[in-house]
Design goal:
Helices cover about 35% and strands about 25% of the residues. It is α+β, with helices and mostly antiparallel strands and about 230 residues long.
Length: about 230
């Protein structure tokens, strides 16, 4: 499965980091649970992700998942969610291609997306002297746009918010979903972000960072209401 613009040239080798390394096009590797590589393709910079398991299941199988159907695989679900969001103009990575390999009752999977050019992350900004309230308000606005579109991010944290000049992008939508109502889950999503901020800064959003956090919440609510109203017109 691939983006329509690339369907005629998609190659299985694209999902092999060694393939890019042999051509001198492997630009770097990101740390984390799984393996994520930045590569330089003929079409531009891409990010290649191989899905790895976490928790207790990782001790049983590092990267094999139980097969319940092609449409239920992790990579396909994330690819389709990214396609849906990208087509709506939300600030997220453009999906490029997905690979799923089935073997018996299990499968492995990979995803390629376009690399989002950025100078820093929200996590890094939190520990700098220019940690301004305005930035928190911008973050709140961006998250509000996603929530208004019904987009649930399963791991909303400070490392998944990329900053490119005045633009903010949200990445890593593994286990993400589209939800029809807007009653409780947006607040649960924000609570997860709050914990991430406090872990990164070692400060409380209810005390030392109270004004910053309130600016984020106010902007989120404003963007959520505005975009919900616009979509109902």
């Amino acid at each position: 499965m691939s983006h329509p613009e690339l369907s005629s040239i998609v190659n299985e080798s694209w999902f092999n980091a060694d393939y890019w390394a042999e051509q001198g096009r492997l630009l770097g590797t990101y740390a984390g649970r799984g393996s994520v590589w930045m590569i330089k393709s003929a079409e531009g910079k891409w990010v290649l992700k191989h899905y790895y398991r976490g928790g207790l299941y990782a001790k049983i199988s590092r990267d094999k998942y139980f097969w319940t159907g092609f449409n239920q695989t992790r990579a396909v679900r994330e690819f389709r969610l990214l396609t849906h969001m990208y087509d709506q103009g939300l600030p997220c990575p453009k999906p490029v291609a997905v690979q799923v390999k089935k073997s018996g009752l299990f499968y492995t999977n990979d995803l390629i997306t376009e690399y989002i050019r950025h100078q820093t992350t929200f996590a890094k900004k939190l520990n700098q002297n220019d940690n301004e309230i305005q930035l928190w308000a911008q973050v709140g606005t961006v998250i509000g746009r996603f929530h208004a579109a019904g987009i649930y991010h399963a791991d909303l944290n400070v490392h998944n918010l990329l900053i490119n000049n005045n633009d903010i992008y949200l990445i890593d939508f593994d286990k993400g979903d589209i939800k029809n109502n807007h009653t409780k889950w947006p607040q649960a999503n924000l609570a997860r972000l709050k914990r991430s901020i406090e872990k990164e800064t070692q400060q409380s959003c209810d005390q030392q960072l109270k004004n910053h956090w309130q600016a984020l919440i106010d902007s989120h609510q404003s963007a959520l209401k505005q975009n919900l109203n616009d979509s109902s017109l």
